[in-house]
From TrEMBL:
Keyword check for DNA-binding: yes
Main location: nucleus
Protein name: HMG box domain-containing protein
Species the sequence originates in: Proboscia inermis
Annotation: DNA-binding region: 6-74, 98-166
Gene3D superfamilies for this protein: High mobility group box domain
Xref: SMART domains: HMG (SM00398)
Domain of life: Eukaryota
A Pfam family of this chain: HMG_box
Entries under InterPro entries matching the protein: HMG_box_dom, HMG_box_dom_sf, HMGB
Molecular function per GO: DNA binding
Species lineage: Eukaryota, Sar, Stramenopiles, Ochrophyta, Bacillariophyta
Length: 215
């Protein structure tokens, strides 16, 4: 009986992400998905060697689980390696590709992080993130509008640079295959012709002829 391909082992960083994502999201409720990922990455780089050992041990245990499972794995016919079959290889990230623009929140975070850290040197990463988030939420409409304007300009700049990057690097930008549109299905209308036959009601009038009896 063939054993199905098992899940690949998770890295120390992925265990850290799963462990801290909810916490970082709670500390930064205004951060989007991409912003949350960046904040988790910053937090991971700041953990101590002792803290990292916990996640390294989890990753090592998961790798051992994977290796044991793969010993009993039988590849399907036509597959020569233990690699999971994929429809297309994931393209390597090009270092020359334009970086995605920052959001309003991340612009504020980058501008204020060092200032707040200097004013509060004893703050932990989580407390620092909470304070940045709190100050961001307390901004008035004018200050937020300025940040939104900066974010909009960065997005416009990114879109121009990305279009130029696609033009000069056509082989590095995947082209989405257009799906063939199916012709519209025309339903045939069932014509039900009801022949209404008008029945003429003819009144039968009995003409009674008076016959004179002649003797």
């Amino acid at each position: 009986m063939a054993i199905h391909m098992t899940n690949r082992p998770m890295s120390s960083y992925m265990y850290f992400c799963n462990d801290k994502r909810a916490e970082v999201k709670e500390e930064n409720p205004d951060a989007g998905f991409g912003d949350t990922a960046k904040l988790i990455s910053i937090k991971y780089k700041q953990i101590t060697d002792e803290e990292r050992k916990k996640y390294d041990a989890m990753a090592a245990k998961d790798k051992q689980r994977y290796l044991v499972a793969m010993k009993n794995y039988t590849p399907p016919e036509g597959e020569t390696s233990g690699k999971r079959p994929t429809s297309a290889k994931k393209a390597a990230k090009d270092p020359n590709a334009p970086k995605k623009p920052l959001s309003s929140y991340m612009i504020f975070s980058n501008e204020k992080r060092n200032e707040i850290k200097e004013q509060n040197p004893d703050l932990s990463f989580g407390d620092l993130a909470k304070k940045i988030g709190a100050e961001y939420r307390e901004l008035d409409s004018d200050a937020k509008a300025k940040l939104d304007h900066k974010a909009k300009k960065l997005k416009e700049k990114y879109e121009v640079e990305f279009q130029e990057y696609k033009r000069t690097n056509p082989s590095k930008t995947p082209i989405k295959s257009e799906k063939k549109k199916k012709p519209p299905v025309v339903k045939k209308k069932e014509s039900s012709s009801d022949d209404d036959s008008d029945s003429d009601d003819s009144d039968d009038s009995d003409d009674s002829d008076d016959s004179d009896d002649s003797e």
